[in-house]
Structure formats: structure tokens, C-alpha cells
Specification:
The chain is elongated and about 105 Å long. It is α/β, with parallel strands linked by helices. The strands form 5 sheets. Strands 3-4-2-5-6-1-7 form a 7-stranded parallel sheet, with helices on both faces. The chain is built from 26 helices and 21 strands. It has 5 domains: 3-199, 3-Layer(aba) Sandwich (Rossmann fold), CATH 3.40.50.300; 207-333, Rossmann fold; 342-417 and 499-515, Winged helix-like DNA-binding domain superfamily/Winged helix DNA-binding domain (Arc Repressor Mutant, subunit A); 419-494; 572-634, Arc Repressor Mutant, subunit A (Orthogonal Bundle), CATH 1.10.10. It starts with a helix and ends with a strand.
Amino acid sequence: MNPEQHRQILVKYWGYSSFRPLQEEIIQSVAGGRDTLGLMPTGGGKSITFQVPALAMEGTCLVITPLVALMKEQVTRLISMDIKAMAIHSGMSREEIDISLENCIYGDYKFLYVSPERIATRSFQEKAARLNLSLVAVDEAHCISQWGYDFRPSYLKIASLRSLISDKVPFLALTASATAQVIEDILDKLEFRERNVLKTSFSRKNISYMVRNVEDKGVYLVKTLKKARGSGIIYVRSRKRSREIAMLLAENGISADFYHAGLSSELRDKKQSSWSSGETRIIVATNAFGMGIDKPDVRFVIHWDIPDSVESYFQESGRAGRDNKPSFAVLLYSPSDKNRLNDSLRQKFPPVEKIKDTYEALCNYLQLPLGAGKNSVFDFNMSEFVSRFRLPVIETYNSLSFLQREGYVEFTEEINNPSRVHFIVGRDDLYKFQVANESFDGFIKLLLRSYTGMFSGFVAISEEALAGKSGLSRDTVYQYLVKLSALNIIRYIPGKTTALVIFTEERLERKALMISPGNYLYVKEKYVARMNRMIDYAESRNRCRAVILLDYFGEVCDRCGICDVCRERNELELSKYEFDLIKEGIKDILSREKPDAGMLVKMVDHPEDKVVRVLRWLLDHNKITRDNDNRLSWI
């Protein structure tokens, strides 16, 4: 494949004159038909690595992603660039999905976005072999690994596509964060034909990582943000706190707003847009805020609460400084945070019997009989569910998460689905109907003038827009649509905003619900290990922050020189080489004997004033300890 063709596509559709690091290597790899795993940091431009080669190839690129909102956003953007694209997810009716797949088979679509739980359904599997696929792109590929922090069993079904499509179709797996263990799991579970891993350094040299040990975080935040410049994100763990901190900042004259998943999609879009445009300076948010953020000039990301994994922290803090200008990632940490994180462990892993109670309550809430429901999709209102069954919110959420991990159910984030219309009669029959039913003629003409493509598939419409154009009330527009649907002229699906639950297996009896103690313990141990690595990061005072983060992902690097630990060491006015040389000299002596400080300074073969500075630093950072006789030991 000609690299120049890829650059021309980049310029034509995205307006960029050159690729970012690693993008071109990944594009050339998949264009050459090779299965490829691409590891790119947050904001590295992952979508371009499959969109550019797909536009240069014959056929359709299948994109698998669990983020329905991101899927819809990318499809909308591609369509705005006159590129044919569509999305299939669990928020659509079976009829919509079937029509969409048929249109994709015969309609020369370049991109088909699919949520992972759709892959295993019979309707998709039957039609997959008829799709002329050029490439399969698997986004958020770490979700396939049980070692990962966001495992989704539906990802394990993706490899089944191998037997349904041509073996010449390459797979491209993409993720922003994966340990060495997760990388091997991705290659294995997606049945890669070769070990082809392309990655760029995770190092973000423009980000200064800091941990601030503070008791009163509110006072620190207000004081710091009054001096700091630019826009930023403050991450918190609870919806209530997001509102409280935003109000605290606003009361102190700092432009701020809050964001969490409990807000309506319209309000979330409005808040994100206001922050992205610079109208709002700071957004205080739960981890629901992050998908689709492409604001390059975020100067700081502050974590009020300690995340429960390095992966989460690295992704969220990585939203700072995408313009490569100096930025800050700050973790606010107090002694009570460690206890709070350990306390959350009990809620994170409810007893197995509580998980089974939640499963039975869910089935009863959805009125699902035994033996039924496999691949069924239901609207799901979490707050109504816990209220009706008087369940504790956090324990219930985590029970549902465990049921998802075990492969019994899948959940989607809240989906904002607009109303859709599809004409199920041909143009000739529609004309006859209009002649015979004059009262509907004007409204049908309004529909046909306002939207195209309604004869070949479902098209998103807006009742408000139709009302505005026609002078009718919204309710009158709605009644027209309902009546035309009842007369079998159209299929009308009213819009709604809801989260969904998908049963990947039929409803089982309680005794058949297998949650093995061994697997439960295994998952818990992995969670605790990730949590402890995050605590180690927060409590470390002697290792470069960037070194700790990159070491977690198996990458070796020199100390960054700009994190809080490095800056404190820099104040010693010693080069890294001098500091390390003196430190190793001290360590070597203390491995053999236990002198006091005065003796030690004379024993090290370096200027005494420099040895004193390094020794003081090592004592302050608990690398060296004193016994009752003031004798020194290396810890």
C-alpha cells in the first residue's frame, strides 16, 4: 500500500499534514494484512489508525467498541465528512439491526461500528459472513483480558469472527494501557497469527506528576487554583462530591461546574461543551467524564480521591497536556485515603450470596421467567431498581459488575437514542395512500422533505424540529407518527434515554448460578494487587513518579526531573550522576557495616558537603534508619 495515499487521505478528511508517532507504522502494518496490536497513550489518535487504511481499502471496516456514545459520535463525524458509516448496538430493535446489517452488506458502507455483546448474537453471526470486510478494529482491547482492570466477557466472543470471515482480513487491537501480562492475553484471546506489537512510549515528558499530602483538601484546592492558570479537570469518586466541590470553587470565585453519569445526556453534553469551549474553566467529575475528550490545552488534572488502579490514574491524568505544553497531574492524598480505599474493598466484593440475591432481584424486576431471556435487552433504571427492592446502592452496583464479569449479563452506559422512522411501504403504495387519505398527505410530505433514506432503513428524526417546521404542536406530530405506524405505513420508534441490561445467558435457578469461590478470590486478589500498587505510588517519596508509572507498564525510563520527587532531589544541586554515585557508595558501605553519620561522611569518597546532602535526603525519605546508638542501616 502506498504511504502517500494514506497521507493524502489524512489531509483530505482530517486536515493534518503528517501522522502522529506510531500512527503511520500501525497503518502500514494493517494495510499489509498483518494482525496488529497498537498501544497508544490516551489522546494519541487511535481512531485514525483504522479509519485511514479502511478508506484506502475495498470493503467495510468492522469496529468493535463498548462505548456506545463514542461509537455514535464517530459515526456522526464520519457521515459529516461524506463517509458512509453506521452503528449497531443494544439500544436498537432487532428489526433496526437486521435492516442496518442488510444495508451494510449491499450499501457500500466503509465503517460498521458494533458493540461487543452484539457479536455473539445469531442475527449478526448469520450476516457476518456476507459482509465484505477489509479490517476488524477492536478498541479498548484490554477488556478481553481477565488480568485487566476492565474485563468484559463479551470480548471473548470476538475471535469467533475468524471462522466466519476471510482469513486475509487483519485484526487491529487498540488500547491505551496494558501491562505485559495483558498484552500477551490480548494476542492469545484474539488468536493473532503472529506476535506483532507496535507501541510508542507511554512517557508524557510534559506532565509533572505530583502527590500532595494534605488534610484539608478543599483549602488546598482553592488556594492552588487561584494561583494556577488554564483549564483543568478534578476527578472525584462520588456524584455528591462533584457537586460540592464545584460549589466550593464557585463560591471562591473560580469558574467551575460538575459532571456525572446521573445527569441527563443533554445536560452532560451542555456541560462538556461549555468546558471544552473555555466558557467553564474547571470541570469536577466522576470517571464518567473522559470519553471523547479532545481538548488539547488541559493544563492540570487533579485527583481528589485516590483511584483504585494505576491504569485508571494513568488514563485520567493523561488527559492533561495533549498539546505537549507543560502540564500537571496532581493526586491529593491523606492518611485517611488508604483506610477509605481498604474500606471500599468490602463493598467492591459483596458476599457471593448477596451477588445471587441481586441476580434474583434483577430477574424479578425485569419479570424474566426461568429458562428465558438469552440475548434479550431490557431498559434498566438503577435508582428505581434499588429503591423497589430496598438494596444498598454501592453493593448492588458491584454485585451487578461481578455478574457481568462472570458472563451472565452485560450493561451499557446510558444511551440517548433519538426517535427513528422507517417507511415500510414502497413509494407507489405510499402515493396511493396519500391520495386516499388526504389528512395525512401534508405530514407525509413534511417527513419526506425533512429527511432522506427512510425507505431503505431507520432514520433519526426530531419531533421538535418537525413541529417547528410545520407549526404543529409536538404532541400533534407524535400522534401523526403513532397513527401512521398503526396503519403499517411506517415503523416509528419513539426516542428515549436509558441504560440497558443484556442477558447473555437465559435466567438460571439460584443453585445453577455458578460463582466459584476460587474465581471470586482470584479476582479479589488481582484487584487488591492493583490497588496496592496505586497506594505505593501515593506513598512513595523517593522514586520518580514517572518511573513508577512506566515501570508498572513494563517500560524503563530515566527519572523525569519535573515531578515532585525529582524537584526535591534537584534542590540538592547535584546532577543525577553525582547523586546516584554517592547513593551507591553509601549503600555499599551500609551493606557491610553500621557507622554513625559522621563516620559515614568521611568513608564515602566524595566531597563531604555533597555526601551530607545526599545522606540527609536518604534519611528524610526513609531509605536509611538510625538505631538507638545513632548507627545507620540501609532499609
